[in-house]
Write a structure and sequence with these properties.
Elements: E1 2-6, E2 18-22, E3 32-41, H1 44-50, E4 61-62, E5 66-70, E6 76-79, E7 82-83, E8 100-101, H2 102-105, E9 113-117, E10 121-123, H3 130-133, H4 136-150, E11 158-162, H5 167-178, E12 182-187, H6 190-198, E13 203-206, E14 215-220, H7 224-233, E15 234-242, H8 255-260, E16 264-267, H9 273-286, E17 292-297, H10 301-310, E18 316-320
Parallel strand pairs: 11-12, 11-14, 12-13, 14-15, 15-16, 17-18
Antiparallel strand pairs: 1-2, 1-4, 3-5, 3-9, 3-18, 5-6, 6-10, 7-8
Length: about 325
C-alpha cells in the first residue's frame, strides 16, 4: 500500500523529509480494526515530527493523526486521534501519562489502510464528507474543548482568537459563532482577516492591535508571538486557554498582570472521544462545515506539507489516497 512517511527529520527543511512509499498492509491485533482510509488531514504535529520534535524512534515513520474511512464491513467512521486508556488516567483518557496520537503510538493516518483501536471508532455522520470528517479529530476537537470546557464562557461572551488561519483557530471561530459567542480574531494578514469574517468572526484586528475592550477569554495556539497581547487583552477574572506554541513555548509570563487581574491560564490538549462525538453532532445540527484550504493526493503530499509550513494556510489541508485500496463492498459517500 502507498503511505506518506517521514524519511528523517530536519529542523530547517522539514518538507524535504516527506516521501511517498510502498509499505506492507498492516494487520490488526486484538482490540484493533483495520480502516480503509478515505481522507486524512495535516496538523502542525506532523511538521514537528518532521523537524525532529516528535520523539520518533525510527524512520521511515508514517505521518498523520486524523483519518476518516471505512471499516471492513463498509461502515463509515471517524477515528478519535488520541490513543490512551482511561484507566491509566484515573478514569480520564486525557490524563493517561502514556497517551499519544495515532501517529505516535500505532502508525499514522497517511496510508491507504491503517490499524486503529476499535474503541476509537466514531460513526461518521452522513452529512459530512470524508474530507470534512477528517478535519475533526485533532483541530476541531481541540477547539471544541478549548471553548466549551476550558474557557468558561457562555453565549454573549467575547472570545479573542489569536491567529486567523490555522485549523484550531478557524474551528474555534465557526464553533463559537454557532454557540452565540462574540468571536474576535487577530491576524497579520488582511486577506485572512477577511476570510475570518466570512466564516463567523464578529470583528477582526491586526496582530497586536489594541482592542476596544477586554475580552472574556482568549484562545491562543500561537505562543510567544501573541502571549503578551493575550494577557493584556483579557478582562480581570478572564481566562487564557493555551493549546499550541507555533512561534515558541517560552514567553515571558507577566506574573504581576496574571496575579493582580486574577487571570486564569488553562492548558488544553486534544479532547475525549465523547467530545469528538459532540463536535460532530454540533456541526451536523448547525450545518457547520470545516473550511478546507485544499485537498491533495498522496502523490502531492510534499506540496501539501509545503503549503502548511508556509503559514499561508486558511483552514485544513487534506490528503486522499491516489487510488483507494480495494476493501469494503458497501457503498459509502466520498
Amino acid at each position: 500500500m502507498k503511505a506518506v512517511v517521514a524519511t528523517s527529520a530536519d529542523a530547517d527543511d522539514p518538507v524535504r523529509c516527506v516521501d511517498v512509499t510502498d509499505l506492507p498492509l498492516p494487520a490488526p491485533g486484538p482490540g484493533q480494526t483495520l480502516v480503509t482510509v478515505a481522507a486524512a488531514s495535516l496538523n502542525h504535529h506532523d511538521l514537528w515530527t518532521l523537524r525532529g520534535a516528535g520523539g520518533v524512534a525510527a524512520f521511515p515513520h508514517v505521518l498523520g493523526c486524523d483519518v476518516a474511512g471505512t471499516t471492513p464491513d463498509g461502515t463509515p467512521v471517524v477515528v478519535h486521534a488520541l490513543v490512551a486508556e482511561a484507566a491509566r488516567g484515573g478514569g480520564d483518557e486525557l490524563l493517561d501519562p502514556r497517551r499519544g496520537t495515532l501517529s505516535d503510538r500505532l502508525g499514522g493516518a497517511f496510508a491507504e489502510q491503517v490499524v486503529v483501536p476499535t474503541a476509537n471508532l466514531v460513526p461518521k455522520p452522513g452529512q459530512l464528507t470524508f474530507a470534512e470528517a477528517a478535519c475533526m479529530p485533532t483541530a476541531w476537537l481541540t477547539a471544541f474543548r478549548m471553548l466549551f470546557d476550558r474557557a468558561d464562557v457562555r453565549p454573549g461572551d467575547t472570545v479573542l482568537v489569536q491567529g486567523a488561519g490555522g485549523g484550531v483557530s478557524t474551528a474555534a471561530i465557526q464553533l463559537g459563532a454557532a454557540a452565540g459567542l462574540r468571536m474576535w480574531v487577530t491576524s497579520r494578514s488582511e486577506a485572512k482577516r477577511e476570510k475570518a469574517a466570512a466564516i463567523g468572526a464578529d470583528r477582526t484586528f491586526a496582530s497586536g492591535e489594541r482592542l476596544p475592550e477586554r475580552v472574556d477569554a482568549v484562545i491562543d495556539t500561537v505562543g510567544e508571538a501573541t502571549w503578551g497581547h493575550s494577557v493584556r487583552s483579557v478582562r480581570p477574572g478572564g481566562t487564557v486557554v493555551v493549546a499550541g506554541w507555533t512561534t515558541g513555548a517560552g514567553p515571558a509570563a507577566d506574573l504581576s498582570r496574571l496575579s493582580l487581574n486574577n487571570i486564569t491560564v488553562r492548558g488544553s490538549a486534544m479532547g475525549r472521544r465523547r467530545d469528538l462525538e459532540s463536535v460532530l453532532a454540533l456541526c451536523v445540527h448547525h450545518g457547520i462545515r470545516p473550511h478546507i484550504d485544499g485537498i491533495h493526493s498522496f502523490a502531492d503530499a510534499p506540496k501539501a506539507f509545503a503549503r502548511l509550513e508556509s503559514g499561508e494556510v486558511f483552514g485544513k489541508v487534506v490528503l486522499q489516497p491516489d487510488t483507494p485500496t480495494p476493501g469494503p463492498s458497501k457503498a459509502f459517500d466520498r
